[in-house]
Specification:
2 domains; about 15% strand
Length: about 240
């Protein structure tokens, strides 16, 4: 009888030991999956770029830089600060197509220049990216800014670059116009060249963009796989 009791105790002890080992292995697998998911998320030591106008097709993946960081710096100056170690590392000038796409989506769609139908879009643009001069609610507020490359607006002339404008006035009207940001305005089919300005002009802002960083779906899935069991276990512990 004593032999049977001893055998039962030994068997029970071994089962409990195996259960503890299995429990540890289970959590080690979870930990490793979680750690792998975290480590595979791209890390550059920089803040992740976030789309500025995610609802506008064509620029939905771009982060636009606020004008306050570019006011007073010329196109030539800023262009020399792109790339590793520059003041505008990872950024570039928004292309003509990207600028047209953004402003075409924001203007009222019926009237150019100052008009009430342009109010919502102009105010959204200015409140998001800032402005160059003026006092909101008191004077005309202007965002006069550079964009594109020499070839975008004045092919063959490397001394000038594209100029665009978005403005508002105290009575609420907003300003957009063909030749300063819109692709066609109220005149479909019009292929008007954009107004250009010297690349050395420094009393304006610059429309700079970079691609927003979005973790790969597989990386997000791995992260969730690692977190889910831990969260479930936490809920079981805190359950009444």
């Amino acid at each position: 009888m004593n032999d049977l009791n001893t055998l039962a105790k030994t068997a029970k002890s071994r089962v409990l030991s195996l259960m503890k080992i299995g429990h540890k292995v289970h959590h080690m697998v979870i930990f490793r999956a979680f750690a792998f998911a975290i480590l595979t998320i791209p890390f550059t030591g920089k803040a992740l770029a976030v789309p500025t106008f995610p609802d506008i097709t064509g620029v939905a993946t771009l982060e636009f830089l606020a004008f306050e960081t570019t006011i007073g710096r010329s196109w030539s100056d800023i262009s020399g600060q792109f790339g590793f170690g520059g003041d505008f590392e990872d950024y570039r000038y928004a292309s003509r197509v990207e600028t047209e796409t953004l402003l075409d989506a924001l203007w009222g769609g019926t009237n150019e220049f100052f008009h009430a139908s342009n109010s919502a879009g102009a105010n959204r643009f200015l409140s998001t990216l800032g402005f160059i001069n003026g006092t909101p609610g008191q004077t005309q507020v202007n965002a006069l800014f550079l964009f594109g490359t020499n070839a975008d607006c004045s092919p063959g002339d490397s001394s000038v670059v594209c100029l665009a404008q978005v403005s508002t006035v105290p009575d609420g009207r907003g300003y957009f116009t063909d030749g300063r940001g819109l692709s066609e305005g109220v005149d479909p089919g019009n292929v008007q060249d954009f107004q250009s300005i010297f690349t050395t002009a420094s009393n304006l802002g610059s429309l700079l963009v970079k691609e927003a960083t979005v973790p790969e779906p597989g990386t997000l899935l791995l992260t969730l796989c690692g977190l889910a069991p831990l969260l479930a276990r936490r809920q079981r512990k805190t359950a009444p």
